[in-house]
Amino acid sequence: MALERTFSILKPDATRRNLTGAINAIIEKAGLRIVAQKRIHMTRGQAETFYGVHKDRPFFGELVEFMTSAPVVVQVLEGENAIAKYREVMGATNPANAAPGTIRKEFALSVGENSAHGSDAAETAAQEIAQFFAGNEIVG
Ligand code: RTP
Ligand code: MG
């Protein structure tokens, strides 16, 4: 099977609690390679673009506030079946429904402050990676 890449964000609740290393350990243990990574403080515009698909949802304002409330770590993860694999490693959006051992079960505070983002499909992965990384920042 071919290597695939997915886009990940370690969200503000994770950076605030100094959990980025613990989450990276879970990612690497699952066989995903961190091929790009940087810490940024998202602007409101970046967050609104990134979550544009949710702009009409009732939680959109709160989501943008949260994502800009503290630094995040943006990442590109590489591996076989990386997109689906990382969704599995993250666990369900609502930590109450997440399986044991997943990032969200271990660390998420709520459905909103849920520690990690992972792309949901190949097209969104490519778009999301391109929003935050230049090609030469990704070293596979
Ligand atoms: P993500 O995009 O962050 O990887 O999460 P996801 O696919 O599991 O969930 P999605 O439906 O795309 O929702 C995006 C993010 O919005 C926040 N959210 N809040 N308050 C709420 O009811 C609610 N629902 C979603 C979460 O931070 C979720 O990860
Ligand atoms: Mg999503």
Helix content: 25-40%
Radius of gyration: 14 Å
Q: Using DSSP, what is the number of strands?
A: 4
Structural class assignment: alpha+beta
How would you characterize this protein structure?
The protein has 140 residues and is an alpha+beta fold. Helices cover 39% and strands 20% of the residues. The chain is built from seven helices and four strands; from the N terminus they run E-H-H-E-H-H-E-H-H-E-H. The chain has a four-stranded antiparallel β-sheet, sandwiched between helices. The site of ribavirin triphosphate has 10 residues, from strand 4.
Write a brief caption for the model.
The chain is an alpha+beta fold and 140 residues long. It has helices spanning 12-16, 20-29, 44-50, 60-67, 82-90, 103-107, 122-132, and strands at 3-10, 33-40, 72-80, 116-118.
List keywords for this structure.
140 residues; alpha+beta; 4-stranded antiparallel β-sheet; binds magnesium ion
Topology of helices and strands:
Blueprint: E1 3-10, H1 12-16, H2 20-29, E2 33-40, H3 44-50, H4 60-67, E3 72-80, H5 82-90, H6 103-107, E4 116-118, H7 122-132
